[in-house]
Predict the 3D structure of the following.
Amino acid sequence: NTPKVLPVSIFSMIQFMFDDIDNDLTMEEMIEALPESPMYIVSNLHKKYGFASILYPNLLELIGNKLGNFYILPSSLHEALIVPVSAGMGVKELKEMVRSVNATEVEPEDLLSNSVYLYDTRTQKIDAYV
């Protein structure tokens, strides 16, 4: 029942910066309405323990249908960052970004991982780049 109690919230960094987030949309509508962006945030409506929302049924598949293959960055216990492979950022660059943010911005109790993960739309699997 978690997806019903804590609905997913997906938005681009630009939407986040300008507080232009429509949380009245369904998961499918939210994904379809995403503007083109090099990075997206996935959480839940309360932005608490939102990283778990990447496990909601069909979410990764729907994001992959919209964006193609993408990286999942464990921003914190509260959110995941999604970076389309088409954005052109390399794994090494993304891993360094995760390490740097984790070391300077994330509270120790909210830290998940310094790894970067790739969602492959063809296999519908997640691979880790440790």
Observations:
- Residues 91-104 form the longest helix (14 residues).
- The chain has a mean pLDDT of 91.
- The helical segments are 2-5, 13-17, 27-32, 59-67, 91-104.
- The longest strand covers residues 70-76.
